[in-house]
Amino acid sequence: MYTDMEQWSEIRRRVLVGGLSRRAACREYGLHWHTLTKMLEHSEPPGYRAAQPRAKPKIGRFTGATLDRLTHRCQILECNGESYRLADAKRRRRPPPG
Question: How buried is 39 (Cβ within 10 angstroms: 0-12 exposed, 13-18 middle, 19+ buried)?
Fold first, then answer.
């Protein structure tokens, strides 16, 4: 990405007003033809522009099937109480009373 505004403005001025040919500008400044074309189309660097929105991950379609295979023949238990390990960790963190 070309972001030097002073050189951007100089190149635009020399090509559009000063009479420097596009080919000579590419050669003199070491630019690719497409870069020079963008410079002449925009008064300042346009920034990053994605051509298309990013694709969603392909695994997203298979999450349901993956969960079905992982939980096949498994018993799912629902617990409403606090876990023993969590209670033990909390108890160890607290300083003893007194």
Answer: buried
Cα–Cα nearest to 36, from 4, 12, 20, 19: 12
Asked whether 15 and 22 are in contact (CB, 8 A), the reply is yes
Tell if the pTM clears 0.90, that is, is over it. Answer: no
Tens of pLDDT, residue by residue over 53-67, are 877 777 777 777 887
Nearest 5°: phi and psi at 88?
A: -65, -40
Cβ atoms of 71 and 65 closer than 8 Å: no
DSSP letter for 76, please: -
Report the alpha-carbon distance of residue 23 to residue 40 in Å, rounded: 13
